[in-house]
Amino acid sequence: MKTSDFSKWSKGVGGYTLPAPDPVIPSENPADGEVRDLGKRLAAPENCVCGGRLWIGGDFPPGHPDFGKVVMCACEKARQEKNTRQLRWNDSGILNYVKEGTLISQSFSSYSDEANPDCVQGKRYAISWSQDNPDAKPWLVLQGKPGIGKTHLAIAATAAAIGAGQQAVFVTATEFASRARREARDGTLDTYLTFLKNAECLILDDLGREYKTDFSIDVVFEVLDFRYFNWKRTLTTTNHTMEELATIFGEPMRSRLMDTNRSRFANMTGKDIRRFGA
C-alpha cells in the first residue's frame, strides 16, 4: 500500500492512525491476491465491504505489518457517527428549550442584522466562537438589555457547535440554579457540576438571574472558575452590567468575564425585537 493511499485512508476514517505498511510483494500464492485486494479496500473504506462483520482486516498473513489489525468498516463508522450526533443533541439540553424542528428560527441566518445593527458584532463573535476559529477566544460574553437577541445567538451558537461535531451544553441560569438544588438533595451535585465543568462548550444563558442564595452563587462560580482556569470554551449572556455582576458574584467573577486574554465582550444595544416583532 502506498503511503499516500494510507494517508488518504487515515483521514477518511478519522482518528485511526497506523504506520503505513510495506508493499505486499506478489507471489504465486493465490491468497496474495486477496491480501492485495484487502489492502486496496483499507486505503479508503468509503462503502460497506465487511459483509456484515462491521470491521475489516485480519486477513493478512503472519509477518505482514498489518497482521492481526482491523479497522472499522464504513457502515459501522456511519452508524456510530449518527449515534454520536444524536447523543450530542440529547446531552446538550437545548431541546428542553427549543424543539428540534424549529431550530432554524433560532439560527444565525434568521437573526436580523437590520433590526439591531449595533448587535452585529455580537453575532460575528458568536459565529466565530461556535466554530472554534483560531482567532476566537475561549470565552464570549454577550451583554445587553432583554429582547435584543442574546438568547437567540446563544441557541444558534449551541446548534452550530453541535453541527460542527463538538459537545455543547446549553443551560439557563434559572435551570442551573433549580437543578443544582435538586442534585444537592439527591446527593448527585458533584456529578452534575463535573459534567458542566468538563463540557467541551458551555453556554450559560441569562447569567445573574435567579441567584438569590449563597448556594446558587457558589455553584455557578465554582463551574465558571474551573472553566476559566482550564481555558474551557464558555459563552455567557447577561442582562446585567459588569458592575451588577460584581455585586452578585463578587469582583473575581467580573475580572474573569472581562479578562481580554481569554474572553471577548460584546455590549449589544438596540430595541426589543420581541416587543416590536422584528
List keywords for this structure.
single chain, 278 residues, alpha/beta, two-stranded antiparallel sheet, 11 helices, 46% helix, 12% strand, disordered N terminus
Q: Major beta sheet, specifics? A: 5 strands, parallel
Q: How far is it from the N-terminal to the C-terminal residue, by CA?
A: 59 Å
Give the number of DSSP strands: 7
Q: Calculate Rg over CA atoms.
A: 25 Å
Give the overall form.
globular
Share of helical residues: 40-55%
Strand residue content: 5-15%
Provide a count of the helices. 11
Read across the widest sheet, the strand sequence of neighbours is 4-5-6-3-7
**Rounded mean pLDDT score:** 77
Query: Structural class given helices, strands, pairing?
Result: alpha/beta
Helix-strand sequence: HHEEHHEHEHHEHEHHEH
Low-confidence stretches: 1-41
Question: Could you please describe the fold and organization of this structure?
Answer:
It is built from eleven helices and seven strands. The protein has 278 residues and is of the alpha/beta class. The strands form two sheets. It has a five-stranded parallel β-sheet with strand order 4-5-6-3-7, with helices on both faces. The chain is globular, with a radius of gyration of 25 Å. The N terminus is likely disordered.
